[in-house]
């Protein structure tokens, strides 16, 4: 497995030329890096006008490794090759290094760049990426990889300290300014000739791409790579304790709100995200980069992405999986607009015993829930589970908003809140089965979509019945979350280690013996006159799961799911919006003059006879006796959609008749030259637990007079187009997620 690392953009508040002067002082050796034994210049070129300077060095390292491992490997030193290209005209330095030692067993590659700040020419940006691929190493592959990751992380921080050391040294010597390069009036252009010292074609790369504010998606680190990194360019990599300005790569999409304008400030990570290790920074940048490149909808904020990474111990693959699922869920249920659209029913305002109350000693928003005074059965009977869930979601959304506000107020990152639960009054009526079921469902949804938002849970005045409730609920709570629970029985919260350790005396609620008036409702029994029947609750359009504009369907191997749409007017527009929740599918659009036969019901089992696979909604309409090209025709090229992708598109119909939307199970193609399966195919198949895919879809037909085209592909009349309808629900979907045309077809794909 290739281990990768990607740094954020580090910013020195010194001019590029001064930083370059400090950088050159690290050679030929540096006493601040004990493992850096020596370096020698192998080749060097310079353009006639002096604007381009290229150097190739060979660096000798004494790797910090167990002596036994060195003896087994048969080496005392490790050698790296480093190529530097300094463009004084563009004010950039590109550094590329790789290992020479054990290059047939271990591949270490590192790229670094210094450049003038794009917005402040007196500052200097630094960016670094590296990769490590251990193919074989005498049976010590895992050991070498772990050792490399650890050493590389420490070398990143060391690199910044080294540059700062030499900058301070220059200042002590009275050197505070290095003039910029300016072209001489009688000097030839750098593109004409070069002045070789030991010129080789390999070194004459006079122009390299400059990426002043963009990060490349890479991750972990490498043993020797880390060392080479520390030597070659350990420039400004540091944990979040520096005074450099940190510029995250690539601005987030316009529809992401709340991103700080001062991302280039030196303490952006420390101020808004907290103390992260270099490897944690790398995971955040890579996941954020992946979202920018692949997800066409609303990009979550950095702090929210970080929550999902923390929830999976910075395992990027696992974090990406749950984050994509959460983004799909938020889009499906329009959670981003919940605070603007949700109005609590009066019964909640009167009888729901919870509310926000100041903040704790760490600046976290404080939420108080008087669970013992709450009539859970009455609330469920009066409102239903769905309304309670929606209310809890609105609380979590409000919590995210308050965390952002407190981050600005207190000047430090606050990404979670504290919850105080008072259990006085809790008894057996709170163990009502439907109420516990509703609680478990709420916990499940919150755990999946709001990870790492609970900083601490203070449970006060726990009665004897509490262990019973805890036994029922605790298995559904993440282990990391359970570690944040502090439980006090009786009045123990008033003693040492109690409430005063976490909440200022001035804000302790009056019902807990404090002097602060708390506006949380006192609750009480919900009048039975407010109870509603199951039918009334089902008919109310508030469901988060069952009553959405989306429909779900299962797609099986050999059993596609199909939807038929009858078109009367030839110029109509068929629109679709679907999410691939599980597996990979291929989307087709067909046209037929014949009406597909509706699914037949088996009178004995009440199932559609066309449903050939058990479990889930799956309908097949195209008769097996039909012939493609004769009975029906393909009007759009097949579109392969990966798990986690969202697809929006449309088709301007050319003929009346019946249009069939089909989602087919995607089978990986085999190699044409051999009957053996490819390794990539086998690995891909292992990621799907069964021959089943799942999609959630929404379709709509819009008359030609009811829409206006946002962008139109003129290559064919039947091309898929991005549309905005003035009357349809599809336009509402468009507001919820922005999209762009796919490069191969006009369907729009996002993850």
From TrEMBL:
Q: Where is this region: Disordered?
A: 233-260
GO terms of biological process kind? negative regulation of RIG-I signaling pathway
- Extract one GO molecular function annotation from the record: RIG-I binding
Bias-annotated ranges (Polar residues): 233-259
Q: Where is the PRELI/MSF1 domain?
A: 3-175
What GO CC annotations are associated with the protein?
A: cytosol
Q: Which residues cross the membrane?
A: none
Show the SUPFAM superfamilies listed in the entry.
CRAL/TRIO domain, CRAL/TRIO N-terminal domain, Supernatant protein factor (SPF), C-terminal domain
InterPro entries found in the cross-reference section: CRAL-TRIO_dom, CRAL-TRIO_dom_sf, CRAL/TRIO_N_dom, CRAL/TRIO_N_dom_sf, GOLD_dom, GOLD_dom_sf, PRELI/MSF1_dom, SEC14/CRAL-TRIO_domain
Domain CRAL-TRIO residues, every copy: 344-520
Boundaries of every GOLD domain copy: 546-701
Q: Which named protein is this?
A: SEC14 like lipid binding 1
- Source organism of the structure: Hucho hucho (huchen)
């Amino acid at each position: 497995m290739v281990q990768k690392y990607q740094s954020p953009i580090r910013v020195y508040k010194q001019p590029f030329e001064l930083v370059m002067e400090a950088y050159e002082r690290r050679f030929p050796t540096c006493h601040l890096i004990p493992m850096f034994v020596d370096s020698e210049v192998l080749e060097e070129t310079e353009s006639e006008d002096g604007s381009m300077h290229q150097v190739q060095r060979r660096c000798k390292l004494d790797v910090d490794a167990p002596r036994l491992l060195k003896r087994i490997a048969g080496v005392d030193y490790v050698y790296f090759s480093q190529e530097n290209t300094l463009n004084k005209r563009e004010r950039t330095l590109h550094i590329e290094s790789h290992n020479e030692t054990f290059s047939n067993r271990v591949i270490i590659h590192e790229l670094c760049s210094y450049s003038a700040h794009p917005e402040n020419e007196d500052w200097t940006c630094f960016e670094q990426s590296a990769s490590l691929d251990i193919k074989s190493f005498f049976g010590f592959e895992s050991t070498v990889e772990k050792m490399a990751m650890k050493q590389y992380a420490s070398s990143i921080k060391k690199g910044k300290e080294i540059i700062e050391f030499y900058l301070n040294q220059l200042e002590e010597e009275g050197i505070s300014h290095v003039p910029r390069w300016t072209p001489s009036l009688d000097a030839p252009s750098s593109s004409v000739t070069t002045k070789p010292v030991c010129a080789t074609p390999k070194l004459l790369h006079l122009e390299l791409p400059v990426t002043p504010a963009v990060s490349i998606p890479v991750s972990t680190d490498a043993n020797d790579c880390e060392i080479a990194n520390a030597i070659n360019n350990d420039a400004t990599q540091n944990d979040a304790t520096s005074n450099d300005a940190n510029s995250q790569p690539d601005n987030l999409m316009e529809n992401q709100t709340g991103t700080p304008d001062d991302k280039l400030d030196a303490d952006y990570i420390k101020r808004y995200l907290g103390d992260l290790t270099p490897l944690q920074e790398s995971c955040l940048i890579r996941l954020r980069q992946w979202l920018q490149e692949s997800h066409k909808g609303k990009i979550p904020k950095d702090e929210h992405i970080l929550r999902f990474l923390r929830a999976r111990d910075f395992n990027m693959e696992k974090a990406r999986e749950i984050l994509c699922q959460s983004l799909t869920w938020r889009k499906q249920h329009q959670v981003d607009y919940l605070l603007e659209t949700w109005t609590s029913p009066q019964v909640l305002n009167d009888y729901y015993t919870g509310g926000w109350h100041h903040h704790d000693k760490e600046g976290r928003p404080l939420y108080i829930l008087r669970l013992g005074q709450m009539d859970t059965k009455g609330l469920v009977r009066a409102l239903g589970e769905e309304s309670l869930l929606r209310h809890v979601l609105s609380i979590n959304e409000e919590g995210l908003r308050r965390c952002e506000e407190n981050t600005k107020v207190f000047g430090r990152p606050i990404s979670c809140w504290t919850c105080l639960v008072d259990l006085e009054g809790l008894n057996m009526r709170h163990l009502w089965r439907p109420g516990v079921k509703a609680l478990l469902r709420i916990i499940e949804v919150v755990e999946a979509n709001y990870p790492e938002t609970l900083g601490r849970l203070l449970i006060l005045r726990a009665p004897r019945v509490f262990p019973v409730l805890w036994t029922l609920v605790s298995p559904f709570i993440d282990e990391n979350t359970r570690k944040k629970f502090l439980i006090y029985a009786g009045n123990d919260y008033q003693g040492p280690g109690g409430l005063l350790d976490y909440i200022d005396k001035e804000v302790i609620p009056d019902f807990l013996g404090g002097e602060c008036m708390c506006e949380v409702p006192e609750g009480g029994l919900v009048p039975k006159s407010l109870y509603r029947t199951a039918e009334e609750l089902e008919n109310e359009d508030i469901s988060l799961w069952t009553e959405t504009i989306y429909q779900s369907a299962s797609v099986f191997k050999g059993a596609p799911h199909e939807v038929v749409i009858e078109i009367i007017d030839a110029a109509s527009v068929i629109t679709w919006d679907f999410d691939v929740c599980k597996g990979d599918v291929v989307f087709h659009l067909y046209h037929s003059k014949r009406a597909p036969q509706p699914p037949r019901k088996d009178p004995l089992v009440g199932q559609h006879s066309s449903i050939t696979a058990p479990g889930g909604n799956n309908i097949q309409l195209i008769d097996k006796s039909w012939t493609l090209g004769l009975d029906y025709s393909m009007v759009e090229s097949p579109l392969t959609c990966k798990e986690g992708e969202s697809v929006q598109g449309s088709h301007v119909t050319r003929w009346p008749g019946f249009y069939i939307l089909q989602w087919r199970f995607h089978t990986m193609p085999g190699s044409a030259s051999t009957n053996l399966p490819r390794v990539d195919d086998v690995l891909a198949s292992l990621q799907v637990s069964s021959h089943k895919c799942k999609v959630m879809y929404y379709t709509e037909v819009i008359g030609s007079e009811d829409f206006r085209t946002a962008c139109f592909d003129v290559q064919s009349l039947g091309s898929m187009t991005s549309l905005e309808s003035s009357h349809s629900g599809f336009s509402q979907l468009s507001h919820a997620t922005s999209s762009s045309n796919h490069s191969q077809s006009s369907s729009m794909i996002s993850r």
